């Protein structure tokens, strides 16, 4: 990223491949920002709560906001390879998804807990919709209470540009031992618009 440079934006000057900020009248100074710096400025993190859009996957076990006044999905004790599908809502056509992380916590009580996160894209096609993995991460085997965040459960380095007929979602697969559980509260999605 280059350093912003001051330009005299008098009259009808045109600055190619930059954005002028702050110049309102001829002779005033404005700050020009390069296209690469503008792309960084357009990058945003969206928080997507689990409740309201998640669903239990093909292998049962997860409970989405059941019997509680908070927004979360819980995988109770003694579950094996249970799946949860969380759509990435709020994306616009042309958005570039660069990272997806999970938020929540694990209560392990000394037992083994595993959680795998697969970021996926569903593409509409006449013959049949296609489902492809964009990236995956896992927390390993947890044996202590742990806060989940993009630091320990997240997929980075993505460059997925959303097109018409495409949706992005996250597939979680979790396993819990006796006296353990997983409590997911949301996703943190980094998007460039």
**Low-pLDDT sequence parts:** 1-18
Task: Return the CATH architecture of the largest domain.
Answer: Sandwich
Question: How many structural domains are formed by the residues?
Answer: 2
What is the rounded distance between the termini?
Answer: 17 Å
Helix and strand content put the structural class at mainly beta
CATH class of the largest domain: Mainly Beta
- On the 0-100 scale, what is the average pLDDT? 86
The helix-strand sequence is EEEHEEEEEEEEEEEEE
Describe this entry's structure for a reader.
- It is a single chain.
- The protein is mostly beta strands.
- The chain folds into 2 domains: 5-40, no CATH class; 42-192, Jelly Rolls (Sandwich).
- The protein contains 1 helix and 16 strands.
- The strands form 3 sheets. Strands 4, 6, 7, 9, 12, 13, 14 and 16 form an 8-stranded antiparallel sheet that branches. It has a 5-stranded antiparallel sheet with strand order 5-8-15-10-11, with no helix packed on it.
Give a brief outline of the structure:
With 193 residues, the protein is mostly beta strands.
Main features:
single chain; 193 residues; mainly beta; 5-stranded antiparallel sheet; 1 helix
Produce the secondary structure layout.
Elements: E1 5-8, E2 18-21, E3 29-34, H1 35-41, E4 43-49, E5 55-56, E6 63-64, E7 73-75, E8 79-87, E9 96-107, E10 113-123, E11 130-142, E12 146-148, E13 154-155, E14 160-161, E15 166-176, E16 181-192
Antiparallel strand pairs: 1-3, 2-3, 4-16, 5-8, 6-7, 7-16, 8-15, 9-12, 9-13, 9-14, 9-16, 10-11, 10-15
